[in-house]
């Protein structure tokens, strides 16, 4: 049984009611666990979709410039941080020389990790045009520049996509080296 199943199995009705009250009073889920937390330093990254979902994201997963993958962070205990949609991560590989100086320390060999949630109204970022080096959101066509730290290239979004700092782990595995540079999800700054 996974960790989420274990927690759910131990919750009685009274706890649920108490939890719901705490939730509504604080605006946060009272029983939030590691799966609900945003990616953190020391997490490893695994592929989030497709036939290879769950496999480690390595530099080889993004061997060519222009590659994009969706990823999920996994904590040191092996729990996937997929309880919050704001944990969605996308990684793209661009030419290292194109990366803005201020985010270069957060990248590994041209691989940039960003929040996969549009900062306009929260749709999932899914478009990538390597010619223009722009990520796009199909809901209202905002565009973002990963090599420039998620800067908005075209609105209606006004807030850049947060960057997730990366580090190289054993065997070229990509690891989380810190928290998102700003709060993921809709916002204005
Ligand atoms: S939600 Fe992405 S552009 Fe509106």
From TrEMBL:
Its cofactor is [2Fe-2S] cluster. It comes from the Bacteria. Residues 111-175 form the Rieske domain. The keyword GTP-binding does not apply. Pfam families: Rieske. Keywords: 2Fe-2S, Disulfide bond, Iron, Iron-sulfur, Metal-binding. Signal peptide: none annotated. CDD domains: Rieske (cd03467). PANTHER family: CYTOCHROME B-C1 COMPLEX SUBUNIT RIESKE, MITOCHONDRIAL. This is Cytochrome b6-f complex iron-sulfur subunit. It comes from Methylobacterium crusticola. The gene is petC.
């Amino acid at each position: 049984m996974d960790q989420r199943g274990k927690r759910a199995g131990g919750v009685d009705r009274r706890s649920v009611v108490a939890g719901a009250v705490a939730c509504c009073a604080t605006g946060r889920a009272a029983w939030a666990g590691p799966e609900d937390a945003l990616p953190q330093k020391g997490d490893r990254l695994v592929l989030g979709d497709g036939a290879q979902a769950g496999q480690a994201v390595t530099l080889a997963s993004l061997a060519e410039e222009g590659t994009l993958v969706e990823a999920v962070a996994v904590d040191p205990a092996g729990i996937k941080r997929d309880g919050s949609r704001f944990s969605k991560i996308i990684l793209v590989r661009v030419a290292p020389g194109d990366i803005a100086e201020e985010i270069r320390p957060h990248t590994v060999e041209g691989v940039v990790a960003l929040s996969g949630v549009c900062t306009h109204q929260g749709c999932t970022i899914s478009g990538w045009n390597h010619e223009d080096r722009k990520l796009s959101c199909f809901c209202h066509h905002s565009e973002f520049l990963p090599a420039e730290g998620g800067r908005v290239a075209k609105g209606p979004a006004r807030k850049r996509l947060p960057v997730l700092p990366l580090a190289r782990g054993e065997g070229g595995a990509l690891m989380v080296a810190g928290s998102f540079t700003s709060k993921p999800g809709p916002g204005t700054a």
